[in-house]
Records
---
Amino acid sequence: MNGFRRVRPPQAPGASTHRRLLVTGALSASLLLLVPASAAAGGPGRSPGDGAAPGAPGIGDPYYPASGNGGYDVSHYDLRLRYRPATDLLEGTATIIATALEDLTRFNLDFGLTVSEVRVNGREAAFTRSGDHELEVTPVTPLRKNRTVPVVVRYAGKPSELKIGGWTAWHRTPDGGVAAQEPASAVWWFPSNDHPLDKATFDISVAVPDGTQAISNGVLRSRSSRLGWTRWNWRSDRPQATYLATLAVGRFDITTDTTANGLPVLNAYSRDLGDNAGAARASVERTAEVVEWLEGVFGPYPFNALGGYVPNVPSGYALETQTRPFYSPRQFAAGANVSVVVHEMAHQWYGDSVSVKGWRDIWINEGFARYSQWLWSEKEGEGTAQELADHVYALRPADDPFWTVKPGDPGPDRQFDLAVYDRGALALQVLRNKIGDEDFFTVLRGWPAEYADGNASVGDFVAYAERISGRQLAALFDTWLYQPSKPALSPGAAAGAAPALRGARSWARPAEPRSYRRIAATDTVHDHGRDHARGRGHGRTQDRAPGLAPGLLSQGRAQGRAQGRAQGRDNGRHRDQVQNLSQDLSPDR
Ligand SMILES: [Zn+2]
């Protein structure tokens, strides 16, 4: 993710709107549950208390205790959806292939829309609601450990009206809607085991009115039109975390291409991007080039499709939705921004293929995605990673709250704090200086292969770097990731580099690298109070990138407006070009 806004998790305490909205559905469902759960669990030939028990309502993440669920593992989601942009009505049938990890009398899914029916292994199951987004499912007979069953959930609702903690993750746009949020967005559009620990493959099929496009992850396998509806069929064939599944419905211009390695590229741009249209295309159309460069740093691209999309949302951030990142138009308000593309595509290795074990491991995602922006700057001759590290280190005095954030365990309120990114990248520069370029880049390249399609923690990374380098690194990571204070030695000095780099001891700051402001601009496109999270603490000082001078923020925005106006002249031409390409899009690629 890029562009710092904080998302309160769906299980935020005190959220009651959601429960009130769902009271009708819950009432009818609860009538099915007049029989106590223990009795309902006792199927033919089994007595209650034979060892089967309800699955836990959370997967065990201390940052978000209600996220995900216990007792089962999902291997595949099949989502068959229909969406009406005019009314924001989403209707769906989700078929979830789940394997019980223990004997279960019932289990939970995370979901917020109104459910009309649940079937487990073909048989109608009882269901009810609890908490902010829990759907409790009680099959007719307990699920035995290791049994794999289909769970079918039929549902409908308007995602923009589903408020959890007073907030919806769904972006309603003038021509459709978009699901792209972190750490949670699935609750607004499909039932799931909503935590990165339970990754699965996805088939996402979406019917939208003819003339409207439905964008999602992976490969567009087919597209067909019938009776005024066009159905778009997408497939993600590698394990994908639920928050990395995305859906964007609207009027998009689509461009397609093939990489040098033969992978399909598909990008989509809202036809309603205004002044940002040209800069968006000038950035996202470079995705294949960026991935080719990243392969040189991180090893082979982990997925079989790539691209990006820019919907007409008023938000400011970008998100690494798998294979096809989401970019807010405001990321391009200051002109072309390839750096944000580098950030989101770096996440395909660091965050998507290798996912966090728990949300406290967010540095595994953001420290590396930010560092990849520094490496891109180094490659472009706009400032080396060392120069950027020295600049960031010197920019922030010891009493800056920036240094109180621990990137290795920032806490849920600071999960997307700028320090996780910038101090997180500083830690990597210190590591690079300590173990040398050869071992450092061996680590960067080896890690995504070691944990491909899986999950890993900060501790796993420290152990891996120690194994590759043969060095003791615990103290280094403790200083840079876990101490709530500014390290005494600058990144250069910590490695015994030239005295000129010792920012802490020098009265003169190192010169600002040319790329610094462009990279920082990807941070300063804030959402505060504008399009979501209204009244939920956004706009508080600590939600802003800590330590960034307000002057810098407003300067960046003014620049963005001026450059956006300057680029507006080219919009028409770009639009025509892309529309022509869009017409060439074969339905069955
Ligand atoms: Zn990121």
Note: Residues 251-348+549-589 form a domain with the Zincin-like fold (CATH 3.30.2010.30).
---
Amino acid sequence: MAAKRDGMGMKLIGVITMVMALLLAFAAVPPVTAQDEEAIAPLEVYALRVSNAPERSRLVVDLERTTQFAFVSLTEPLRIAVDVRATDYDGEGEGMPAGEGMIASYSVAQIAPDRLRTELTLSGPAQVQQAYVLEAFDDQPARLIVDLIGDTEENFGRRAGLDMGASGDASAADVELADNSNPPGTSNIERDTKPLILLDPGHGGADGGAEADNGIQEKVVTLAFARRLQEILINTGRFDVALTRDNDDFLRLEERVQLARANRANLLLSIHADAFDDPSVRGASIYTRDEQATDMLDHVLAEQENRVDLLGGFAPPEAEPAVVDLLVDLMRRDTRRQSFVAATAILDQLRPSIFVRRFPQRRADFYVLQSPEVPSILLELGFMSNDQDAENLASPEWRDRVAEAVARGIALYFDGIDGTL
Ligand SMILES: [Zn+2]
């Protein structure tokens, strides 16, 4: 079964769990530090953007660092208010969203010393489809992303009622803020239990990637595909789905890897459509990391501290270097195995839907696939250098069909994980 882990994978996980349990048993319990509830740590909101698309509206808040947030539904007029724990914001107090859609206008106000509220006035009932905070990486700030989709009048009214009941007065500044989770009543989003899928449209900005004879650029195709796949995956209700780039930005490869690692993505799917000298070569293929490849991250991992970090607190800082080595190695091997299982699951769904290359499941030394702890796959949708593939890649209907297949593969892969862990 493509989506199931095999016995070896289970054994590896078993070993990791056992070793970690042993380490934990001997590790000193760290002292619990009391949080000073009264102190308000300064936190700046750098910028915020509100945009409408045909079926989705989005609020993006650029933050000095990750912070807590909450959202509530309000009536008369229909609004969704998004609060973030922040102390400073120098931008505009109100504005109109880019594009036409569910958000008619918005206003921003500091409603408490540590709370900035963005009130989205709606043109009709809407709900928060997903909301999550992304860690800062490199020169990109931390970000809160809130996606809205349409809803029924009845559902909206029910949520507004619950929000009012949960907070006493939802319009006041007393809705509880939380890390990546929703306050009571606001929505059925359970961020903590949903896997995060990070889609990585290849290229961008000055780097157009491969170009077809019909003038279409790889960077455009990969972004269109990633957006469609994001929509399909979100609509399953099972995943949070982020993009490494949601516009024509140029992102370095290490930024893409860092984004996956910093946010502890459960799967990184990099999307490409490359070119080849021989124009007759066509079809989709899927890559996982070559087992023989030397990781460029090795120099980072050479530091004992970083390796302990990587193990996410499962190894005590005073662990013997040899033990840490063993754990890192097990983790890396398990990640590669999971990547392979996910790639197989996706490929199994792709085969009946589209033309795939001969030997479509491949391994290569791609930089973007080297996260030691994030299962990572690179999907080549087809060849821009082949006329038939280029025509397909330009077709929204074709991309729809392929995105549906990829989404099924991803869901099956996670079914396998759920079924065995
Ligand atoms: Zn490419």
Note: Residues 202-203, 209, 218, 272, 274 surround zinc ion (CB under 6 Å).
